[in-house]
């Protein structure tokens, strides 16, 4: 059963007809050719498909495209300003925050969303005092980024890169 | 995946009417569990009614001290809400211990309550499972059952309820507000989920077409000293082997009130009333904490792979109570 939806993807307005079964991830990749969100597990367990959905990080594989009519989607590709990478992207490059790179676009979107959450004062499970402002030390970054798996195991440098980008 | 019709609900009454009259229709919130189940073939709805744009997306402090949480409030927003962080830290911590940042941004309060077990046999349609296919048998009884129940299970089903949030809500004596074709009703959260018995396919007491609209927290001033601790196979982003939600009131070194619930042990969030009774009036000592745990765990029945859950629960409860009562004394 098809349904017409409009998405704003990386600044472009896209109107398309989708089968209701199409996930947001598949709509982006297969219908719109936006391939920076990756299909890893397709079950919300790996985070490779993370995008910013109306400004918040979300797993695009666990939401149907039809449920996101009129939404704003920003992928890792849309975060760069012309030729200048986003500060999180720059920091991952500078710190060797990846090896194969498959999880990287999801890591980028997740980190950008996470830094916004921390800036808004959101606590995490490892935050000692729920009333205090958050300081993004290594434990905080690891906890907040735990939804993004990296099978190359580049975590040490991912954490360093995010700390750098947070400053 | 079977084709389905999708509708975005604009008002609750018509959403309830639509789902009530169609046995194949389901509500969808954040979708983090339901979409996955549709991919896995666990459930095949013919129609989805999306309730995320209904006006249930706020957290309100009521004049009588209660707090009402709308059913579509996202888990991340609820955990960040100042009134929850200050008055009910156990709930904020439980929410933050669950899933990942990107999933908490999607998942809703109502959906978190109604998520289904992560029993690997339930999620694998090639294996027998009484919860997924009544009468087909339970693969976990003699199978890999490290994550399974030690309290309140039946020979039909040994699955556990996966929610962290619901464990905190059980400790807090929250109420669940439900709207259905015949009007509204209130269900204490401790009575929302069922034990498996002979009908493990029924997770809750809700009837088809009923919609969770809100959760209400009682005032409970001593919940400012409350805590959620989750023990799991990795440091983050995993379901609980054992979890403890607790709030205690201590007066002159004695425990005068306690609210305790366990996660990871049963088919429902397990309100530990025997432990609470044992603690009532007891001194805040290690012996009393362990005696309370033993009182609750006396009926525990373990399986091949999950014997560890009994001592782990005892240790975790003692550790949480120690921390809460020391906090009180300092």
From TrEMBL, chain A:
Q: In which pathway does it act?
A: Alkaloid degradation; nicotine degradation
Instruction: Give all residue intervals belonging to the 2Fe-2S ferredoxin-type domain.
Output: 3-79
Top-level taxon of the source organism:
Bacteria
What Gene3D superfamilies does the record tag this protein with?
3.10.20.30, [2Fe-2S]-binding domain
**Residue intervals passing through the bilayer:** none
CDD domains named among the record's database cross-references:
fer2
Keywords, A to Z, come to: 2Fe-2S, Iron, Iron-sulfur, Metal-binding, Oxidoreductase
The record ties this protein, via InterPro entries, to: 2Fe-2S-bd, 2Fe-2S-bd_dom_sf, 2Fe-2S_ferredoxin-like_sf, 2Fe-2S_ferredoxin-type, 2Fe2S_fd_BS, Aldehyde_Oxdr_Iron-Sulfur, Beta-grasp_dom_sf
Can you name one GO molecular function term for this protein? metal ion binding
Listed name of the protein: Xanthine dehydrogenase YagT iron-sulfur-binding subunit
Automatic annotation (TrEMBL), chain B:
UniProt keyword Cell inner membrane present: no
User: What SUPFAM superfamilies does the record point to?
Assistant: CO dehydrogenase flavoprotein C-terminal domain-like, FAD-binding/transporter-associated domain-like
Q: Which UniProt keywords apply?
A: Oxidoreductase
A GO term, aspect molecular function = FAD binding
PROSITE patterns per the UniProt record, alphabetical: FAD_PCMH
Alphabetical list of InterPro entries matching this protein: CO_DH_flav_C, CO_DH_flav_C_dom_sf, Diverse_Substr_Oxidored, FAD-bd_PCMH, FAD-bd_PCMH-like_sf, FAD-bd_PCMH_sub1, FAD-bd_PCMH_sub2, Mopterin_DH_FAD-bd
Q: Which Pfam families match?
A: CO_deh_flav_C (PF03450), FAD_binding_5 (PF00941)
| Superkingdom in the source lineage | Bacteria
Keyword Metal-binding attributed = no
Q: Which residues form the FAD-binding PCMH-type domain?
A: 1-222
Q: What is this protein called?
A: Xanthine dehydrogenase YagS FAD-binding subunit
Source organism per entry reads Actinopolyspora alba
């Amino acid at each position: 059963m098809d349904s017409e939806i409009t998405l704003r993807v990386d600044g472009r307005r896209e109107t398309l007809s989708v089968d209701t079964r199409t996930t947001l991830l598949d709509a982006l990749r297969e219908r719109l050719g936006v391939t920076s969100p990756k299909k890893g597990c397709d079950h919300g367990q790996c985070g490779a498909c993370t995008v910013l959905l109306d400004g918040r990080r979300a797993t695009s594989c666990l939401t149907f495209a039809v449920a996101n009519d009129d939404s704003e989607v920003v992928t890792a590709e849309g975060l760069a300003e012309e030729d200048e990478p986003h500060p999180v992207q720059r920091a991952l490059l500078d710190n060797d925050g990846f090896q194969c790179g498959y999880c990287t676009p999801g890591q980028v979107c997740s980190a950008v969303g996470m830094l916004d959450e921390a800036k808004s004062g959101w606590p995490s499970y490892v935050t000692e005092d729920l009333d205090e402002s958050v300081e993004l030390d290594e434990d905080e970054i690891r906890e907040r980024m735990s939804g993004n798996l990296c099978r190359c195991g580049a975590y040490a440098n991912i954490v360093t890169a995010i700390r750098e980008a947070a400053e | 995946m079977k084709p389905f019709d999708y509708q975005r609900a604009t008002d609750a009454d018509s959403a309830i009417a639509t789902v009530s009259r169609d046995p194949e229709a389901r509500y969808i919130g954040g979708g983090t569990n339901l979409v996955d189940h549709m991919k896995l073939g666990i459930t095949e709805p013919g129609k989805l009614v999306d309730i995320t744009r209904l006006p249930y997306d706020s957290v309100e402090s009521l004049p009588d001290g209660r707090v009402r949480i709308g059913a579509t409030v996202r888990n991340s927003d609820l955990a960040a809400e100042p009134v929850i962080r200050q008055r009910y830290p156990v709930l904020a911590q439980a929410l933050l211990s669950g899933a990942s940042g990107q999933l908490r941004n999607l998942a809703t309060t109502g959906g978190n309550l109604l998520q289904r077990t992560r029993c690997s046999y339930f999620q694998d349609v090639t294996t027998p499972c009484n919860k997924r296919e009544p009468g087909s048998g339970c693969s976990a009884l003699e199978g890999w059952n490290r994550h399974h129940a030690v309290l309140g299970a039946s020979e039909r089903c040994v699955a556990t309820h996966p929610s962290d949030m619901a464990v905190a809500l059980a400790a807090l004596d929250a109420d669940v507000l439900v709207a259905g074709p015949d009007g509204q009703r209130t269900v204490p959260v401790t009575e929302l989920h069922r034990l498996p018995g002979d009908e493990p396919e029924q997770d809750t007491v809700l009837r088809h077409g009923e919609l969770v609209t809100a959760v209400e927290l009682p005032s409970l001033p001593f919940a400012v000293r409350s805590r959620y601790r989750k023990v799991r196979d990795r440091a983050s982003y995993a379901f609980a082997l054992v979890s403890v939600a607790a709030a205690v009131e201590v007066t002159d070194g004695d425990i005068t009130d306690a609210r305790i619930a366990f996660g990871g042990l049963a088919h429902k969030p397990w309100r530990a009333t025997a432990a609470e009774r044992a603690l009532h009036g007891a001194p805040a000592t290690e012996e009393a904490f362990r005696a309370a745990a033993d009182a609750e765990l006396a009926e525990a029945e373990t399986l091949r792979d999950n014997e560890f859950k009994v001592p782990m629960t005892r240790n975790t409860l003692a550790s949480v109570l120690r921390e809460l009562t020391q906090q009180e004394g300092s």
